[in-house]
Design brief:
Helix content of chain B: over 70%
Distance between the termini of chain A: 26 Å
CATH architecture of chain A: Orthogonal Bundle
CATH architecture of chain B: Orthogonal Bundle
Structural class of chain B: mainly alpha
Order of helices and strands of chain B: HHHHHHEHEEHHHHEHHHH
Strand content of chain B: under 5%
Shape of chain B: globular
Strand order of the largest sheet of chain A: 1-2
Number of strands of chain A: 2
CATH topology of chain B: ABC transporter involved in vitamin B12 uptake, BtuC
Low-confidence stretches of chain B: none
CATH class of chain A: Mainly Alpha
Low-confidence stretches of chain A: none
Order of helices and strands of chain A: HHHHHHHEEHHHHHHH
Radius of gyration of chain B: 20 Å
Largest sheet of chain A: 2 strands, antiparallel
CATH class of chain B: Mainly Alpha
Number of helices of chain A: 14
Strand order of the largest sheet of chain B: 1-4
Structural class of chain A: mainly alpha
Distance between the termini of chain B: 22 Å
Number of helices of chain B: 15
Number of strands of chain B: 4
Oligomer: heterodimer
Number of domains of chain A: 1
Mean pLDDT of chain B: 84
Mean pLDDT of chain A: 81
CATH topology of chain A: ABC transporter involved in vitamin B12 uptake, BtuC
Number of domains of chain B: 1
Chain lengths: 318, 325
């Protein structure tokens, strides 16, 4: 009985899905489960995981919370982060990390204020913020990003621990720590869940739910800012709007990981598993050498199938 | 006086006001408003307005649809490809609009019958539709017979320009639906799904209809944009879905559902279009343009939401009354 209960956890579809996808990938192209490919899959997964951590925090905060500006923030910090250049490479790299986090957090703060103080619906507020942020990056770079990625920045994705790259390992440890100490144990995490579940109850308990939810947006922005820096370190070059697809991918990852869009429930680890599923799908389709259009079509169909299995609303008749 | 109040309280009023103000600004910048300006304005932006009508319909039932832009691209690509294969323009247009309606029905099926969240569903289907468009026509190119463009710039019965006719088709369908019991049920569904279901509203059928209507709207938008450009591009509608949601919100349509009407969507989209044309004609460097567009969009949305806020209105009123005393 205990076991059956444990099996019925929200991670199950994502875990089963990713194992099935790995087997399918190996069956379709023989080099799929080679160490090299696995480490590159984990690398891209860890970037998407960062984005989905931020997205999960906002979705948990409830009030139909959703951050559609994550991709725009990532693109912005991917462009601006490498521009930080002070003296030696190591010093400027040390400055890059807080700089990108600050940039992202600033956008997140604007999002939070728009959603909670000006009472704009989150979907629209963050959507418009993403077009403002994209416009801002075009304004600053004059449409021609000239980004030179320093070796220090590249090294975060190139350094190896055994056969695997170091970054995914760091992210996985960070993820578990965040999940346990930020989301589950901390006072802030508990109040975030309560605010997402029932705002009135949270307010009656003396929680400043407005402030808590604004902080969730700031957190999402900050994490997305860092994810942008990781992305540019991995890709080696930066382009305009390079991370815009991460917005909806992060939402999809969070949902596949078992978080409901209604808020008040959710986990960071689920988002990571969802990210793994999405990246595996993309990777398999790329390995099969398909036309870009067909790839996107199949990706869409698989997503629809996952959604139909995983996140159907209960029947109205009860 | 009551009439004025009624107009002021209309949910689409702020967007109409914004549209008229910016129309005036545009007139000052470009030196007078001419009939030819209106004609080209409508011809260029009929597609955006049609998509906004479709999105507004889905938002009214507390849903949303971000796949419409992809459907527009798909329609454009289908028309171009069929024309190059030797089909007549009429046949190509009809087949393409049929495809769009099918796409809408698919959305409606997944959202209505399978009860999946509309935002996620339409994100997934938009990936699929955009994929089909990219599969059919991997690179921008192709051309349509220019008779199509001539037809688009002609007048129906010598009076009504064709782009307006296209918009009117959607508006008339919508008005007919609104005059039926389904119209009232639609708003009930948007306000509260459970109560609507308990009162005997056919939730599944209404959701299915709304998304099919949105598909039709995207199809007509695709026809407009194809006729206007006479060329094919697999990403022509990519930015339209997001802009149309912003347009609907500016038009006073509540994303929580049940408040607003399609006029809001129309005026919101018209405001956004005139805004873009002002920013383009203001002779700013192209790098500044998108930033300023975003900023004005933000201000527009915040303005229209504050304008719809009843608490705030009451506060302002009480301040004014206090001043009189």
């Amino acid at each position: 009985m205990e076991k059956a209960k444990k099996l019925n956890n929200p991670y199950l579809p994502a875990i089963v899905g990713s194992i099935a996808l790995m087997i399918l990938g190996q069956a379709l192209s023989s080099g799929f489960l080679s160490m090299n490919n696995i480490s590159s899959i984990l690398m891209t997964t860890s970037i998407l995981t960062m984005a989905s951590i931020g997205q999960a925090a906002v979705i948990i905060s409830g009030d139909s919370g959703l951050d559609m500006s994550i991709g725009a923030i990532m693109s912005m910090t991917a462009l601006f982060g490498p521009m930080v250049a002070v003296g030696s490479g190591a010093l400027s790299f040390a400055l890059m990390v807080p700089a990108t986090i600050l940039m992202g957090a600033a956008v997140g703060l604007l999002n939070g204020i728009g959603v909670q103080v000006l009472k704009v619906v989150p979907l629209v507020m963050t959507l418009i913020m993403s077009s403002v942020v994209n416009g801002f990056s075009i304004l600053v770079t004059k449409g021609q990003p000239s980004v030179t990625v320093s070796p220090e920045l590249q090294s975060i994705s190139k350094t190896l621990v055994g056969p695997l790259r170091i970054l995914p390992t760091v992210i996985i440890i960070l993820l578990v720590l965040l999940e346990v100490f930020f989301l589950r144990k901390s006072k802030y995490g508990r109040s975030l869940f309560l605010a997402g579940n029932n705002r009135n109850a949270a307010n009656l308990c003396g929680i400043n739910s407005k402030f808590i939810i604004i902080l969730a947006y700031v957190f999402a922005g900050a994490v997305a800012g860092l994810a942008g820096l990781m992305l540019v370190g991995y890709a080696g070059t930066a382009q305009m709007n390079m991370a815009n697809s991460y917005t909806m991918l992060s939402v999809a990852a969070v949902v596949i990981g078992g978080t409901k869009l209604t808020g008040g429930k959710g986990t960071f680890i689920g988002g990571a598993l969802g990210a793994l599923v999405l990246i595996l799908i993309t990777n398999i389709l790329q390995a099969m050498n398909m036309a870009a259009g067909l790839r996107s079509l199949i990706q869409g169909i698989i997503l629809v199938a996952i959604l139909m299995v995983n996140s159907r609303a209960p029947k109205l008749r009860q | 006086m009551t009439k004025v109040k009624k107009v002021m309280g209309w949910s689409a009023f702020p967007s109409l006001l914004l549209f008229l103000i910016f129309l005036g600004i545009n007139g000052i910048i470009t030196g007078g408003l001419s009939l030819s300006f209106f004609r080209s304005f409508i011809a260029t932006n009929a597609a955006a307005i049609c998509v906004a009508i479709g999105v507004t319909a889905t938002i009214l039932v507390a849903g949303t649809d971000i796949s419409l832009g992809s459907i527009v691209s798909l329609v454009n690509v289908v028309i171009v490809t069929l024309c190059e294969k030797g089909f007549s323009v009429t046949a190509a247009v009809l087949i393409a609009v049929g495809c769009a309606i099918l796409c809408g029905m698919l959305n409606g099926f997944i959202i209505g019958v399978m009860r999946v969240n509309p935002l996620l569903t339409t994100f997934a289907t938009s990936t699929a539709f955009a994929g089909i468009a990219l599969w059919i026509l991997p690179y921008p190119g192709g051309s349509i017979d220019f008779s199509f463009a001539d037809w688009y710039s002609s007048n129906l019965l010598g009076v009504i320009p064709m782009p307006i006719v296209m918009i009117l088709v959607l508006v008339i369908i919508w008005i007919i639906v609104m005059s039926m019991p389904a119209g009232l049920q639609l708003f009930a569904l948007g306000k509260d799904v459970k109560k609507a279901y308990a009162s005997g509203v056919n939730v599944v059928a209404l959701r299915f209809f709304v998304h099919t209507f949105a598909g039709l709207a995207a199809g007509i938008a695709g026809v407009c944009i194809s006729a206007n450009t006479c060329a094919g591009s697999p990403s022509i509608g990519a930015t339209m879905s997001m802009n149309s949601i912003a347009a609907a919100v500016i038009g006073g349509v509540s994303l929580n559902g049940g408040i607003g009407n399609i006029w809001g969507g129309i005026f919101g989209a018209a405001f956004l279009s005139i805004l873009i044309s002002i920013v383009v004609s203001a002779n700013l460097s192209s790098f500044v343009q998108s930033f300023i567009q975003g900023l004005i969009l933000l201000i527009g949305v915040v303005f229209s939401i504050i304008a719809a806020d009843k608490e705030l209105k009451a506060k302002i009123k009480s301040i004014f009354k206090g001043g009189v005393k």
